[in-house]
């Protein structure tokens, strides 16, 4: 038994489920009434998105190097790289929503009559939907890679 592997696996799962929750929250909140309080909440949630994503990278790399199977198990496996690519795409798709949330929150704080422009909201929703869809592929790749598919 290896405690390091266990702790890393627990942390990885907790962080990954937290990120799924955050993506779900952003998905739902951008479909409701975008009052100033909601925009503030979205900006706050999105900050946690960034923090959790960074922690997932740190813990994930920890699993590669300090996990039971050894780094060679992953780096020669194309399913592992498909999972990394999917995660990178999810990250890239989150950039525009982050920029918009910060900007909307700032404008709503400065002017109480601020309304989120419909075109900007539509594009943010598309980015969140696309990111959520790609995110769903990651556990598929993860389960396959963990079982040795991909050589
Ligand atoms: C830089 C990012 C990431 C790295 C380096 C990474 C790395 C790893 C590693 C090394 C394992 C262990 C697999 C094994 O037992 O052999 C693993 C498992 C897993 N990862 Fe990640 N991961 C990352 C991001 C993510 C994300 C964003 C998700 C989101 C769904 C995720 C979901 C999972 C799941 C569900 C497992 C368990 C698979 C299983 O045992 O069936 N990972 N990951």
The secondary structure category is mainly alpha
Which value, in Å, is the CA radius of gyration? 18 Å
- Please, what is the average pLDDT? 97
In sequence order, what are the helices and strands, one letter per element?
A: HHHHHH
Helix content: over 70%
Question: What does the overall shape look like?
Answer: elongated
* Strand-residue proportion: under 5%
Ligand identities: protoporphyrin IX containing FE
- How many separate domains make up the residues? 1
Contiguous low-pLDDT stretches (5 residues minimum) are none
**DSSP E strands, number:** 0
Q: Count the helices. How many?
A: 6
Largest sheet: none
The rounded distance between the terminal residues' Cα atoms is 26 Å
Question: Would you summarize the structure shown here?
Answer:
This protein is an all-alpha fold and 151 residues long. It contains six helices and no strands.
Description:
By secondary structure, this protein is an all-alpha fold. It has one domain. The chain is built from six helices and no strands. The longest helix has 31 residues, at 36-66. It is elongated, with a radius of gyration of 18 Å. The structure holds protoporphyrin IX containing FE. Protoporphyrin IX containing FE (HEM) binds at residues 12, 16, 56-57, 60-61, 63-64, 67, 69, 74, 84, 87, 138-139, 142-143, 146.
Keywords, please?
binds protoporphyrin IX containing FE; 6 helices; mainly alpha; 151 residues
């Amino acid at each position: 038994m290896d405690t390091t592997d266990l702790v890393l696996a627990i942390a990885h799962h907790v962080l990954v489920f937290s990120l799924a929750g955050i993506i779900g929250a952003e998905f739902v909140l951008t479909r409701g009434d975008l009052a100033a309080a909601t925009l503030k909440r979205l900006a706050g949630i999105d900050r946690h998105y960034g923090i959790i994503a960074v922690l997932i990278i740190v813990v994930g790399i920890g699993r590669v190097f300090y996990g039971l199977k050894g780094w060679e198990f992953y780096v020669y496996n194309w399913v592992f790289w498909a999972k990394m690519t999917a995660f990178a795409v999810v990250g890239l798709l989150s950039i525009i929503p982050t920029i918009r949330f910060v900007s909307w929150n700032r404008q709503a704080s400065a002017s109480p009559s601020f309304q989120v422009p419909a075109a900007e909201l539509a594009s943010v929703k598309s980015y969140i939907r696309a990111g959520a869809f790609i995110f769903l592929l990651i556990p598929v790749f993860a389960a396959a890679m963990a079982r040795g598919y991909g050589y």
